[in-house]
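Before the break, one more example. Copy the sequence into your notebook; we will annotate it together after we see the structure.
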Amino acid sequence: MSIKIVRIHPHFVGEVSGVDLSTPISDDERTIIEDGINEHGVLVFRDQNITDEQQAGFSQLFGALEVPDLKTNITKDEDRRLGRFMADISNLDRGDHILDAGSRQRMFNLGNRFWHSDSSYRAVPAKLSLLSARVVPRIGGETQFADMCAAYDALDENTKKEIEGLICEHSLLYSRGRLGFGDFTDEEKANFKPVLQTLVRVHPGNGRRSLFLSAHAGKIEGWPTPVARVLLEELTEFATRTEFVYTHRWRPFDLVMWDNRRTMHRARRFDDTVEVRDMRRTTVAGEAPTVM
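Here is what the structure looks like once it is written out:
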């Protein structure tokens, strides 16, 4: 059966069929998938029972992979559960036990429930993310995606003019600060030093303009912080209206691939002190900073 992509949301998101990611894919299939991510922003692959190595191999077809490190999390190498290229988007410790309710890692991970773009706190933000569901909770734990191209298109012209050329600061210090999480070591504060990102960007694969929003964004250059945060909050509220959002209800062995250059996403609540949510992410690194 040949590969096929069907749009499943009015603005974005395609469901992919006719491909088995546990085996090598052809150059033609890779091109179809790359064209699909440029067109749809989010691609859903069902029934992909793959290993971490197979996931990383498939991800590398689209660019170099980011390596999770202490610039992206608070987990030290000796406490990591997964391999070098795998970001652990789970509620498990190294021994595969559910994190303690009051653990520092659990508190930090709660930031994933805010709308964000992966690695926007890096000077060169992420290109693509690929999340594989190995174990899913019975209730909750969905992932929601928001189409930042459709949101930008729907803005009024005065707002488009107001935000053109604005530069924001992004940092894990801002997103975790919204949680009330301020328990950072001096090393972590240095690792999470803010970086600059443009607020409006042009997608290199389709030429469309999009909003570059994230919970990691906490300041706008040249603006008083309260004024900046009000604008960022208003834009986020607008960009995450129902018509721009797709909610993915996970099944075991789903793999979802998304384009961080035109989407935001967030995890939804579940009982993470009782149920296991074992999700493993590979991240394709970006190719250039958004601010030169």
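The chain has one domain: 4-284. The radius of gyration is 18 Å. Try to locate both features in your own notes.
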